[in-house]
TrEMBL record:
<dbReference type="Pfam" id="PF01408">
    <property type="entry name" value="GFO_IDH_MocA"/>
</dbReference>
<dbReference type="InterPro" id="IPR051317">
    <property type="entry name" value="Gfo/Idh/MocA_oxidoreduct"/>
</dbReference>
<dbReference type="GO" id="GO:0000166">
    <property type="term" value="F:nucleotide binding"/>
</dbReference>
<protein>
    <submittedName>
        <fullName>Gfo/Idh/MocA family oxidoreductase</fullName>
    </submittedName>
</protein>
<dbReference type="InterPro" id="IPR000683">
    <property type="entry name" value="Gfo/Idh/MocA-like_OxRdtase_N"/>
</dbReference>
<dbReference type="InterPro" id="IPR055170">
    <property type="entry name" value="GFO_IDH_MocA-like_dom"/>
</dbReference>
<dbReference type="InterPro" id="IPR036291">
    <property type="entry name" value="NAD(P)-bd_dom_sf"/>
</dbReference>
<feature type="domain" description="Gfo/Idh/MocA-like oxidoreductase N-terminal">
    <location>
        <begin position="13"/>
        <end position="128"/>
    </location>
</feature>
<feature type="domain" description="GFO/IDH/MocA-like oxidoreductase">
    <location>
        <begin position="137"/>
        <end position="265"/>
    </location>
</feature>
<dbReference type="Pfam" id="PF22725">
    <property type="entry name" value="GFO_IDH_MocA_C3"/>
</dbReference>
Length: 371
């Protein structure tokens, strides 16, 4: 694996590296870790790769690695949103598979362009919607699909954070509130797409209509930092999506609740090893990571016995393990791909426009399988 971005001071780069290498199916061997050559070299040293494989640019990396017998087979894109399309295009045109951080691109038009490139290239492509890698999220999806809740009636997903409630400080905050780097969406693009993907992934249903209310709450901020959406799913079920980065005291409070005619379920990212299942007769079942009753998808995503917590890094690693299987020619049905990436960009575009125009309920188009 080669990496784009993820150099000194980056948050997500080291996480990509740890997740990719956890199962020893993928190893980071090269990178263009920064557009600044000295910083890229420093990034390579931090990752303990060979000094000559820390490149000043993605183009230099692709050219040099093409001439090596042990050259890279895939690229992980861990740079800000406005770099994603160019980096993915260069890698795909060089015949290199791509794992792209979310959101897919900076704009919906870019996402459509990338979708065409991926289709034409026929190479493995994944998007890091990390929360779909948790064992109990995959268990929840399987139980919904098996009819444990009956017909789905309501989906509530919330993702509150508080780290941008005040002045944005530091590299990680700066680019996320800058439309030149983040694109047209702020909070909706940074964490709202995670909530959206989780809701569709577990419920097994597509959103077809939405009503959006986005705001830049902090004075002087251009991009949204607080979002409320009402959703309508393809079967008529109602939904609510809340995403906020100005909710003081909140850390990473992603939570999903799905209610059907016979029961409901509740999963929280800050307590990811517990899934609550509620039955219409008043009974409650606590499903825990490592339980003997877990289905095949959850078991395949689990690494430790019950009582030994698995968390964010392991969930992230499950996506990379799925990706490695895809490279080997296996089916990776639960790995978010280009369709899921495009749907996330559709959400950002539709929510930003609908909120700005006070459009009320709008139709939300279909694209791909949502995988």
């Amino acid at each position: 694996m080669g990496m784009v971005g993820g150099g000194p001071g980056a948050l997500i780069g080291p996480i990509h590296r740890i997740a990719a290498e956890l199962d020893r199916e993928i190893v980071l061997v090269a990178g263009a870790f920064s557009s600044d050559a000295k910083r890229s070299i420093a990034g390579g040293a931090a990752y303990a790769i060979e000094p000559e494989r820390a490149y000043p640019s993605l183009a230099a990396m692709l050219t040099a690695e093409r001439g090596r017998e042990d050259g890279i087979e895939m690229v992980a894109i861990a740079s800000p949103n406005h770099h994603h399309l160019g980096a993915a295009r260069a890698a795909l045109e060089a015949g290199v598979a791509v794992m792209c951080d979310k959101p897919l691109t900076a704009t919906l038009d870019e996402a459509r362009d990338l979708e065409r490139l991926v289709r034409a290239a026929g190479l493995p492509f994944g998007v890091t919607y990390t929360y779909s890698g948790y064992p109990l999220v995959r268990e929840a999806r399987a139980r919904v699909a098996a009819g444990a809740l009956g017909a789905i009636r309501k989906v509530v997903v919330e993702y509150p954070q508080g780290w941008l409630a005040g002045k944005a400080e530091g590299k990680q905050a700066a680019w996320r509130i800058d439309p030149a780097m983040a694109g047209s969406g702020g909070c909706i693009a940074d964490i709202g797409v995670h909530a959206f993907h989780l809701a569709e992934f577990v419920a097994g249903l597509k959103v077809t209509r939405l009503l959006a209310d986005l705001a830049a709450v902090v004075p002087g901020r251009v991009l949204d930092d607080d979002c409320q959406l009402l959703l309508r799913f393809e079967n008529g079920a109602r939904g609510v999506l809340l995403a906020s980065q100005i909710s003081v005291g909140e850390r990473n409070g992603l939570r999903l609740r799905v209610y059907g005619e016979h029961g409901g379920l509740d999963w929280q990212q800050e307590q990811p090893n517990r899934l609550w299942l509620y039955r219409a007769d008043g009974g409650t079942e606590l499903i825990q990571a490592g339980d003997a009753s877990l289905g095949a998808d959850a078991v395949a995503a689990s690494r430790t016995p019950g009582g030994h917590p698995e968390g964010y890094l392991e969930a992230f690693a499950n996506l990379y393990r799925d990706f490695a299987g895809l490279v080997r020619g296996e089916k990776a049905l639960l790995l978010p791909g280009i369709e899921a990436g495009v749907r996330g960009m559709m959400l950002i575009d539709a929510a930003v426009r609908a909120s700005r125009d006070e459009a009320g309920w709008i139709d939300f188009g279909q694209s791909g399988s949502g995988s």
